[in-house]
Design brief:
Shape: globular
Number of strands: 57
Helix content: under 10%
Length: 587
């Protein structure tokens, strides 16, 4: 066994020993390439600040039976050290003016700021002031306040609930006006794309066209009224200014402020037989929503960037929505692409600006075990192969996921799409703005299992989702069907949501032995397109699902039990409650 040590206080000219560790992960990676046999790279305590993403390729794989491990020193022992891999930059040189802290930050661009580890909110207003009219290019208001917002190009509009499951973002291009009114011109193509994408006739909202009025306006220097918020002024190219209104008692001389800079911390492509254990991945951003294309969210981690839309007609032709012909996907800040037999164990993903951890391409037989995901702008974890055959045998087990989707409210906790024989088991998912666990199907998908997870306090912001959500074909026979078994789903309380949600043409799914309580709706059997070869069997809930009294032709509904809440429910579901959630690490 070879042991390599790397420390923030090390020296890359040294030998990488405990006494003389390397200073950078890149140097450690290059050193490992020349070694044979098993290798453990020990990350010593402290912040390992990256100035560029750490890239791993096929030559960084274990081979000929050997395994390469990157781990926090002392992993799994009482002496385990906290090793943080950070893409952030500490902000210094603050000056104070009118109750604000200001710092000159050169060409820094970021969407997040962390003050002593706490995510500072972006300075914001709740909508456009005044009486507002929507135009082809933006908005006109009889208020002159927008003329004092600061640099217009810094300002971003947020559209929450354009569809109940979406939250879009679009930048401002220009603000002009006089003493009577203000004209706001929005970024293009984003605003034109939004008008193309968000069109519907639905029972809950009638007929709508385009994004409508924003629900929130962010990142104007003139919005800094709330303590603990920040704005980034980019009015002078290359001479950006960060502004922060401190909380009571905060002192710039004693406060550590970090701005995420990198969009990717680690990108491993074509790697196999490598493990990452006990490492904290932190301080990364994602700048794509800043572009003129905006962030036109549609569902889950997907968003629209042109290419045309299609119409989904339901309710016997009386209702319809438009959806993207093609979708892009929010990226991961830590990415494994075309990887096999990679283990991520006991790690922590936090202070991140996109999806925390992504497996993509032909990633098969990977495992995410006992890790913690929190304070992440998007989803905790996404596994999205291009086809089911390329996404086989991945396992997500015993992870604690909470307070994710904090910037992009359509993000689910865990998103697994187009997979074969993959497992999501014994995770504890809570405090998310939309779905807890999403299983997307497709042609060739088969054998996915969602087992013994504890999912609660989901759907806290948006609607039309669930604690566990499935859509599309999940197999082609009873033997290849997806199985949702032994999960506890509770506190999905906000309106128009379902604890267990088989939606949009889900087929070949067995939902059995789950316990559901305190939900707006426990489940739904009548959806469009209709369900096919879906079985609801042996579940316990405290209210009957929508459509239980007349299950459609494609649904088998048998042996389910409705039990009042409280002690009677706990007694009836004791075994299910006992087995759901974490078994080991990640608490």
């Amino acid at each position: 066994m070879n042991h390599v040590h790397v420390s923030p206080t090390g020296d890359d000219s040294g030998p990488g020993t405990p006494e003389r560790p390397f200073a950078t992960l890149k140097r450690a990676r290059d050193h490992v390439r020349a070694l044979s046999g098993d290798v453990t790279v020990h990350l010593r305590a402290g912040v390992h600040t990256l100035t560029a993403p750490l890239l791993l390729t096929g030559e960084d794989s274990g081979r000929d039976g050997r395994r390469i491990v990157y781990q926090a020193h002392g992993y799994g022992t009482p002496g385990q050290e906290e090793a943080v891999v950070s893409g952030g930059r500490e902000i210094r040189g603050w000056r104070e003016r009118d109750g604000l802290w200001l710092a000159d930050v050169g060409d820094l661009d970021t969407r997040q700021l962390y003050v002593d580890g706490r995510r500072a909110g972006r300075a914001a207003l709740e909508g456009i002031p005044g009486s507002v009219t929507v135009t082809e290019t933006g908005y006109v208001t009889d208020s002159t306040d927008p003329q004092r917002w600061g640099n217009p190009a810094d300002v971003e509009f947020v559209y929450r609930g354009v569809y109940p499951w979406t939250e879009a973002r679009c930048g401002v291009a220009a603000v002009s006006g006089d003493e009577h009114s203000t004209t706001i011109t929005m970024d293009r193509p984003a605003f034109a794309w939004a008008a193309e994408l968000y069109n519907s006739v639905v029972p809950w909202a009638g007929e709508s066209h385009g994004p409508g009025l924003p629900t929130r306006v962010e990142n104007g220097a003139g919005f800094l009224t709330e303590p603990g918020t920040f704005a980034l002024d980019r009015s002078v190219p290359g001479r950006h200014v960060l502004l922060y209104r401190p909380l009571p008692g905060e002192d710039p001389a004693r406060t550590r402020v970090v701005a995420p800079v990198l969009e990717t911390l680690l990108h491993a492509r074509g790697v196999h037989d490598v493990a990452f254990r006990g490492i904290v991945f932190a301080d990364a951003t994602w700048l794509r929503p800043e572009r003129p294309e905006g962030f036109l969210h549609y569902h889950g981690t997907g968003y629209y960037e042109g290419g045309g839309v299609e119409k989904a007609v339901f309710a016997e032709g009386e209702a319809w929505v438009t959806f993207p012909r093609e979708s892009a996907a929010m990226p991961g800040n830590v990415v494994f692409e075309d990887t096999g037999r990679v283990l991520v164990e006991g790690c922590r993903f936090t202070r991140l600006g996109a999806v925390g951890l992504e497996f993509s391409g032909g990633s098969a037989d990977n495992r995410v075990l006992g890790s913690v995901f929190t304070d992440i702008s998007g989803s905790a974890l996404a596994i999205r192969p291009p086809s089911p055959a390329e996404g086989r045998g991945n396992r997500v087990e015993d992870n604690r996921i909470h307070h994710v989707g904090v910037e992009y409210a359509g993000s689910p906790g865990i998103a697994l799409s187009a997979a074969q024989d993959s497992v999501i088991a014994h995770n504890h998912v809570s405090d998310v703005p939309h779905c807890g666990i999403v299983l997307g199907g497709g042609e060739g998908a088969r054998g996915a299992r969602v087992l013994h997870n504890l999912v609660h306090d989901t759907m806290q912001v948006l609607a039309d989702g669930g604690g566990v959500y499935l859509s599309g074909p999940q197999g082609d026979s009873a033997e290849t069907a997806a199985v949702v078994r032994g999960n506890v789903v509770r506190d999905t309380l906000t309106p128009y949501n379902f604890a267990l949600y088989t939606d949009y043409g889900a087929s070949w799914v067995t939902v059995e032995g789950n316990a559901v309580h305190r939900a707006d709706n426990t489940a739904v059997l009548q959806v469009w397109p209709p369900l096919e070869n879906v079985v609801y069997r042996g579940n316990f809930w405290d209210a009957d699902p929508v459509g239980h009294d007349a299950p459609p032709a494609g649904v088998v509904y048998e042996g389910n039990t409705t039990v009042p809440g409280g002690e009677e429910f706990r007694e009836a579901t004791a075994e299910i409650l006992l087995r759901a959630g974490l078994r080991s690490l990640g608490g």
